[in-house]
């Protein structure tokens, strides 16, 4: 007799997405890198490290997170897209090193228009992986991508690193 075996993690992820869709809130992890100001490496510490669910579980300098090419300097940014455009209400940035560095978040609509949706002080503390969540009034336009701007000088002794980016929103 043949059995259909579905990995628990996959089933859990599908059920979670279904539950969010049923409640009207859709949470989705970044699916593609649109652009980045720089990256420390093409593989380890590369921009592609922000795609999908978090996979950096310990605080510190980890190659499984994106880092800019230099430890300090001018503001850096990464722009990622998502599979389903939504009317956005929040962006989650999983910080794994040098926490407290997000300075601005921009929403990008399907026509390529760029809208600043958040600016302020990221008050997350170092020494722990942290999900920084920037909330804002639900956009009146669909959002297909977000640009996260960071201050690489926030912690002079660390690279500011991002493990994953998630967009929160609804289809209506």
Automatic annotation (TrEMBL):
Pfam families: PAPPA. Keywords: Signal. InterPro entries: Galactose-bd-like_sf, PAPPA_SD_C. SUPFAM superfamilies: Galactose-binding domain-like (SSF49785). Residues 1-21 form the signal peptide. Residues 22-170 form the Pappalysin-1 SD scarf domain. Transmembrane segments: none annotated. Gene3D superfamilies: Galactose-binding domain-like. The keyword Calcium does not apply. This is Pappalysin-1 SD scarf domain-containing protein.
